[in-house]
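Need residues for this backbone.
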């Protein structure tokens, strides 16, 4: 569960970074005090998304790990 969630997150981060890099010229006029390709801002956003995704995948993974296999098989 963790692997699947984090692989989706990694793909989303890569696509998001590419999209953000491509639209920097469009949104540059809206940015005040931040360079359009500021590496610190990009790193902070990636870290924030990664932490949220880690938490979002860890909770269901912990629940799944705590389920007894026999109980899961009976439920289906």
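Answer:
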């Amino acid at each position: 569960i963790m692997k699947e969630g984090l692989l989706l997150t990694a793909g989303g981060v890569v696509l998001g970074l590419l999209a953000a890099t491509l639209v920097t010229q469009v949104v540059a006029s809206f940015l005040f005090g931040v360079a359009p390709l500021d590496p610190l801002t990009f790193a902070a956003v990636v870290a924030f998304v990664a932490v949220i995704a880690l938490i979002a995948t860890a909770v269901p993974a912990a629940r799944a790990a705590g389920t007894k296999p026999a109980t899961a098989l009976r439920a289906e």
